[in-house]
Write a structure and sequence with these properties.
CATH topology: Pnp Oxidase, Chain A
Distance between the termini: 26 Å
Number of domains: 1
Strand content: 35-45%
Low-confidence stretches: none
Mean pLDDT: 96
Largest sheet: 7 strands, antiparallel
Bound molecules: flavin mononucleotide
CATH class: Mainly Beta
Number of strands: 11
Helix content: 10-25%
């Protein structure tokens, strides 16, 4: 019989990030209207929150370069990304560049910029509530419009 030894790990921001990265998640790109230019960010903190009412949530890092604009949005669109869409996922995680440069978008709910490509699932949401959670802010959205395709969502796990 194989024996598995578990060890206690000190809880630090680095160890927590590293251990939680072992939890498999999907990957989303979240878009919204910013101050005169679109906002977009790769995020895997996205999750379901409530079915009735239809609520979802994700957390924005307070260190984000456009944090003040993100916490002022009145809505956002969640694009659940497919396995073949790594280029977009990488583009929307990269800092210091215009993530929308040369990218086709179309206006969605309340003018939110939507990625003009097929994704497994797109949810257009209005902000229902926000909470301060440590070094992040939790943005809860009420799902207003849902668009689904046959593509299989991407999953990541370290
Ligand atoms: C797989 C993955 C998941 C991420 N999830 C989140 C997230 O849930 N919330 C968040 O604020 N940033 C998340 N990030 C980081 C952002 O995508 C982005 O890189 C970071 O916020 C820096 O953006 P900035 O240049 O606008 O500050 C994630 C990055 C990756 C690669």
């Amino acid at each position: 019989m194989t024996s598995v030894t578990a060890s206690t790990v000190d809880v630090t921001p680095t160890s927590l990030r590293s251990q939680l990265a072992r939890w498999p998640t999907g990957v989303t790109i979240i878009t919204a209207c910013g101050d005169g230019r679109p906002l977009g960010k790769t995020a895997n903190s996205f999750h379901a929150a409530s079915l009735d009412p239809a609520l979802v949530g994700w957390c924005i890092d307070k260190r984000s370069s456009r944090f003040d604009e993100w916490v002022a949005v009145t809505g956002y669109a969640v694009h659940v990304m497919a396995g073949h869409q790594t280029d977009l996922v990488t583009r929307f995680a990269a800092s210091g560049s215009d993530r929308f440069d040369g990218l086709d978008t179309m206006p969605g709910l309340d003018g939110i910029p939507l990625l003009a490509c097929d994704v497994p699932l797109r949810l257009e949401c209005r902000i229902a509530d926000t909470f301060d959670v440590g070094d992040h802010v939790y943005l809860i959205g009420q799902v207003v419009t849902m668009t689904a395709s046959h593509h299989t969502p991407m999953t990541i796990q370290r």
